[in-house]
Design a protein that fits this description.
By secondary structure, this protein is mainly α. 65% of the residues lie in helices and 0% in strands. A two-stranded antiparallel sheet has the order 1-2. The radius of gyration is 43 Å and the shape is extended. 34% of the residues are buried. Mean pLDDT is 80; it is low at 1-36, 296-310, 507-515, 711-778, 798-810 and 923-930.
Length: 1033
């Protein structure tokens, strides 16, 4: 009945008011709706005194101001608050009735509103009003005599009173409104002018905290804000009141106690429950209080109150901030005693409380947050970092971070991230953190246990100052203390040393030189294990692999070459071996030592030293090519001479050495070859460049692989091994349907890379489609042939027996042993043939991948040469254009083609830059002259240009035409700028265009458009230069 009457009343109320929905025509006819009169910003509203009975515009003004006061924009709230306060207490204060109306009907009432940010804005105005009334101006005493403190506080209680049967959301809004209002009294700083004021506010806060447990934390926080304004006696009475009302033994009570003791160390505190919450005598009850700080514990309350508990929150309780601040304050007086006290506190309260076996997941989550707070908030207290990595915490941390399906995995990972961040901010923490992660309650293979890279990232902060201590923590004197098997310990140690050895200078706080020393020290340690005769060969191979990878990163920095040579020289030579071989190694080591100690070291001598260092390293790694490399290097050393300028044939010799290095599938060899080639680019001759670019024309198949890497003897040996292995097929390995199905499916050829866009011509797409169809058809034919062969074998055995046909229902159950053996041989022959074909397919694919990878590495060297020599206008640089253009046309690997095109474009840019610099440096040249002072072979370049035009007609794809145009324009610009061959260049373009017009050749139109654009830009530049005023000296 009640609900029915309420519904009728609501309907009646609605019927008595006009409808707020306006007709569409009315809205369209009204050009300026009411909403448009609202000011854009509160500061645009006039700061005029409020009136007692607002009507019309004044009423709208108030509505707009209070609407802005509840805005979510902080600037709008502040500006609106300024206008409201100025309108109340401007040049003339408003009458008391006006102020009372705003307090009752607007401000205190608005605190109970949940609209947007109303509470924040209204609290801002109320704090200012309370300060005007009861603060320094004391307007309540001088002008507003009826507005006493008790009356204003009563208005707050009245307007936010939770009376009657309010819905849950409205009840919550009213409680929060009263809480915000009480906070306004505290922030206004007016509570301690008279003794009774704080007592009234404190009673309301305690009453609210006892009635609604979920508000206890907020009530305690407001009390904490009042403590700095208290006097000693008031603080003592406040603590006594909390003790009497049963709120002392709560997380909020602990925080209030610690804050009061920090302000008044000699204050008198209640005898119960404690004098100091962090004293040893308090540790018996403190764990139970703080253990559920995330859920607001209710110890000390009645059983009915204890049943009222707030929901658990992921936000860490503010009591932990005061606990940390208290320990920091105590450490200033006595660090040693505080260290012992904190160790007791952490072990009993946190480790045995939050991380015990009986602790809940929520408590462990809070424990991780406490750990992060202590780690991040104790910059100058080493005993805290030493203590917080306790036994139960570390066990929980490693278990929870190990797998993603663990309940607290994200919390554990966040704790690990906090460790990495803090060590990065404060590198001096690396030693105590590593000591706890790798030892004590941690694990030497911590990263493996936690499935993380925490230790690796912490090691990136190694500096020369802590290097020795870090190396001591990694390289244990007693490996058994690691808790791992000796082999696993060495593997983990190798990983750690590799990380330190890979540390670039920029990541060390000690600068470039410091970073080099850190990495070099780790490299020496790695090399000691890699070539130690006391370790098993398998372990040494692992260390050598890491050492080689570290060298590859180390050698990327040219300034580190000397340190790398020093590390290699520190490796003891092997005692066993042939005397001749040992003598060659000793000679190479002698050369390396002399080059490394050269007083006037140049880039050439450093590069040669690097080659010797790698040769010695290969010898130590028992590489069969090391002896040949020693001989080649000795010849190269003699050809270079003392001046390092080289003689005839030097560049070819160097190219042979470098190509042999890049042919090896090693990142170190690739990096070394690039560093060395970068130092020798100025010594390259035309024959050397021809030798360098020759592999780019190799076919991308087995034939090309043999031409690049194999000799006839190797081919014969490989064919013999292939023939021998191809006959080994055992049907015992094919006794399951899965194995037979795999053979029937076969290995499909790797598909070619698809074009990145539609810029290629239709002919290329058609060729790709034809190739794919051919592959699919070939594979289908093979599968059909296999099925036919199996059908023939099985049919001959099952359907034909003793010279007559069997019924369709016949099976193989009545076959004799001899017949089964015969069937086995036939099946073996079928699958043997299939295995041979699958092996050949894989061999073709591997051969193509090998050739393409080798070409990629050659292109890296060509790119280095173009980058350095094209900008210096080296005429030999033009030798790379034709091989690069041919590679773009012939390769089937899209990335390889793109890289060659990029080098061609970079060549053009470098040549243009060189021409610009050359013209600018020739002060004696005429204004606007584009002549380049370069010694080039004009006839040779003209022949090259003709070859480029012929090459351009061999492919009509857009990308190839772009590359051909770039190469052709580079040669043409050089000829026109430096020689008298301009007419021949124009004639050649005309001849090519005429052949294209007659359809004798196929060339993209863009090839000629680029040429015309170049001519136009050149003519425009010449015209601008001719009209420019002459420069005066």
């Amino acid at each position: 009945m009640g609900s029915k009457r309420k519904r009728v009343s609501k309907e009646a109320g609605n019927s008595s008011q006009p409808s707020t929905k306006r007709p569409k025509q009315a809205l369209e006819s009204n050009e300026q709706p009411v909403a448009s009169t609202r000011p854009e910003a509160p500061e645009l509203i006039e700061k005029a005194p409020f009136v007692e009975t607002p009507t019309g515009d004044e009423r709208k003004r108030e509505a707009y101001l209070y609407d802005f006061l509840g805005s979510e924009d902080i600037n709008e709230r502040i500006n609106a608050a300024d206008v409201i306060v100025s309108s109340l207490f401007g040049e003339e204060c408003v009458p008391e009735s006006v102020l009372l109306r705003h307090l009752e009907q607007r401000l205190f009432r608005g605190l109970a509103s949940g609209r947007k940010a109303s509470r924040l804005g209204f609290s801002l105005v109320l704090t200012e009003i309370l300060g005007q009334l009861f603060g320094d101006k004391d307007l309540a005493e001088t002008q507003y005599h009826e507005l006493s403190f008790e009356k204003v506080l009563g208005i707050l209680v009245e307007k936010t009173d939770v009376g009657g049967n309010l819905p849950g959301l409205e009840e919550r809004d009213h409680y929060f409104g009263q809480l915000f209002g009480l906070e306004c009294f505290v922030r206004a700083g007016i509570l301690f002018a008279e003794k009774s004021r704080w007592a009234q506010v404190l009673d309301l806060l305690i009453k609210m905290a006892q009635k609604k447990v979920w508000l206890r934390r907020q009530c305690g926080w407001i009390i904490l804000q009042a403590i700095p304004h208290m006097k000693k006696k008031t603080a003592e009475k406040t603590l006594q009141k909390l003790s009497d009302d049963g709120l002392a033994q709560t997380s909020e009570g602990v925080a209030i106690w610690l804050q009061a003791l920090a302000r008044f160390p000699k204050m008198e505190v209640p005898a119960k429950p404690w004098r100091d919450p962090l004293a040893l005598t308090s540790f018996s009850s403190l764990p139970a209080i703080l253990k559920d700080s995330g859920r607001d514990n209710t110890i000390g309350e009645t059983p009915e109150a204890q049943r009222k508990q707030s929901n658990w929150t992921a936000q860490l309780h503010f009591v932990w901030d005061f606990i940390l601040a208290s320990f920091i304050l105590r450490a200033e007086a006595s660090a040693e005693e505080t260290s012992k006290l904190f160790e007791q506190f952490w072990n009993r309260v946190v480790d045995e409380g939050f991380f015990s076996k009986n602790a809940s997941e929520a408590q462990k989550f809070s424990g991780f947050m406490v750990f992060q707070l202590m780690l991040e908030g104790s910059p100058e207290l080493p005993f805290i970092v030493k203590t917080i990595f306790s036994k139960n915490l570390m066990s929980c941390l490693m278990n929870q971070s190990a797998k993603e399906d663990r309940y607290l995995h994200r919390a554990a990972v966040k704790a690990l991230k906090a460790i990495e961040t803090e060590v990065e901010k404060r590198p001096h923490l690396i030693e105590p953190v590593l000591r706890n992660l790798l030892g004590n309650h941690g694990s030497y293979n911590f990263d493996q246990r936690t499935s993380s890279k925490t230790v690796e990232k912490v090691l990136q902060n190694t500096t020369p100052a802590n290097l020795q201590s870090i190396m001591g923590l990694l390289n244990l004197k007693d490996p058994s203390k690691s808790g791992l098997e000796y082999t696993k310990y060495l593997q983990t140690l190798g990983n750690y040393l590799f990380k330190v050895a890979s540390l670039p200078p920029s990541e060390s706080s000690g600068g470039k030189a410091a970073g080099i020393s850190v990495a070099a020290t780790a490299l020496e340690a790695l090399s000691g294990f890699a070539y130690s005769s006391s370790l098993p060969e398998s372990v040494r191979e692992g260390f050598r692999a890491r050492l080689t990878s570290a060298f590859a990163k180390f050698v990327q920095r040219p300034e580190d070459i000397g340190h790398l040579c020093t590390v290699i020289l520190s490796i003891p030579p092997p005692e066993s071996g042939d005397n001749t071989v040992k003598a060659a190694c000793q000679q190479a080591t002698k050369r390396l030592r002399s080059l490394n100690k050269a007083k006037k070291a140049t880039t050439v001598t450093k590069a040669l030293a690097l080659l010797y260092a790698i040769a010695v390293l290969q010898f130590y790694n028992e590489d069969a090519d090391a002896i040949e490399l020693f001989k080649d290097l000795e010849k190269c050393y003699n050809k270079l001479g003392d001046a390092g300028q080289g003689s005839e044939g030097t560049s070819e010799f160097l190219v042979e050495i470098l190509l042999a290095m890049v042919a090896q599938p090693s990142s170190l060899m690739r990096q070394v070859s690039q560093q060395v080639f970068d130092a020798f680019t100025h010594l390259m001759s035309a024959d050397g460049i021809k030798l360098l670019t020759e592999p780019l024309g190799a076919e991308e198949n087995e034939k090309g692989q043999r031409s690049l890497f194999s000799t006839e003897e190797d081919e014969d040996l490989g064919d013999a091994e292939e023939a021998e292995n191809s006959d080994i097929v055992d049907l015992d390995d094919l006794d399951s349907d899965v194995d037979i199905a795999e053979l029937l499916e076969g290995d499909s050829l790797a598909s070619e890379d698809e074009p990145e866009d539609d810029s290629d011509s239709d002919e290329e797409d058609e060729e790709d489609d034809v190739e794919e169809e051919a592959l699919d058809a070939g594979e289908t034919e093979e599968l059909e042939a296999l099925g036919a062969a199996l059908d023939e074998v099985l049919s001959s055995s099952v359907h034909k027996k003793e010279g007559h046909e069997k019924d369709d229902d016949s099976d193989m159950s009545d076959m004799t042993d001899s017949e089964m053996m015969a069937l086995d041989e036939k099946l073996a022959a079928v699958f043997r043939n299939r295995t041979k074909k699958a092996g050949k397919k894989q061999a073709r694919k591997d051969a193509k991948d090998t050739v393409v990878n080798f070409k990629h590495r050659v292109l890296d060297l060509v790119a280095i040469f173009v980058k350095k020599e094209a900008t210096l206008s080296n005429p030999i640089a033009f030798e790379v254009l034709l091989p690069l253009l041919q590679l773009v046309r012939t390769t089937s690997a899209k990335p390889l083609s793109n890289k060659a095109q990029e080098i061609l474009l970079n060549f053009s840019k470098g040549l243009k830059k060189a021409r610009t610099n050359n013209i600018a440096s020739q002060a004696q040249a005429d204004a606007g002259s584009n002549k380049m002072d370069i010694d080039i072979d004009a006839d040779g370049l003209l022949r090259l240009l003709k070859e480029l035009h012929v090459e351009a007609s061999k492919d009509t794809s857009h990308n190839f035409a772009k590359a051909a145009s770039a190469a052709s324009l580079a040669v043409s610009s050089a000829l026109c700028a430096s020689t008298d061959k301009t007419e021949e260049v124009f004639q050649l373009y005309a001849q090519t265009q005429l052949a294209w017009y007659r359809k004798e050749v196929k060339v993209q139109m863009a090839f000629f458009q680029d040429w015309l654009n170049w001519c136009q830009s050149h003519a425009a530049a010449a015209s601008a230069a001719s009209t420019a005023p002459p420069q005066t000296a």
